[in-house]
Amino acid sequence: MDKPMLVFKRFGHQVHLMVQKEAKRCGIEFMGGPQGQVIRFLDYREESEQAVLIKDIEQELNITKSVASNLVKRMVQNGLVELEASPSDKRAKFVRLTEKSRSQMKQIKSFFDRIDRSLLEGVSEEKLAIFEEVLERLQANVEKIGGKNEETR
């Protein structure tokens, strides 16, 4: 087996390219990148009735404040999200899905469900549980070494 870091990097890159290609094929190319990640995150948080600030997006995507601000600005321009000032802190902005992006959620969820099913094809529940357990251990090791979101703080 190749070095684990090389294997993870290759796999992550392959999945990223596959998602972008499939999203483009389905006519939802914006879903293949960070805008899609933000939309899925916002949808998840809205379902559990949790407000989202730009800083929440920074943490979820592990990106800097300026990258998150530019990403959200682009999404506002694309009509995918809207901003609302916090009543308690005018500097803080809540990020919400627009009706346009909400109307696309069924297609988007279907897209990611199909991707998930394809990725897990031929993988038993038992093997998946072991894989998740190993990933959790690796994540804990990364955090122990000092790889927990330090560059975004």
From TrEMBL:
Gene3D superfamilies to which the protein is assigned, alphabetical: Winged helix-like DNA-binding domain superfamily/Winged helix DNA-binding domain (1.10.10.10)
The HTH marR-type domain, residue ranges: 1-140
Annotated Pfam families: MarR_2 (PF12802)
Keywords: DNA-binding, Transcription, Transcription regulation
Cross-referenced SMART domains: HTH_MARR
InterPro entries for the chain: HTH_MarR-typ (IPR000835), Tscrpt_reg_MarR-type_CS (IPR023187), WH-like_DNA-bd_sf (IPR036388), WH_DNA-bd_sf (IPR036390)
Name of the protein described by the UniProt record: MarR family winged helix-turn-helix transcriptional regulator
Organism: Streptococcus taonis
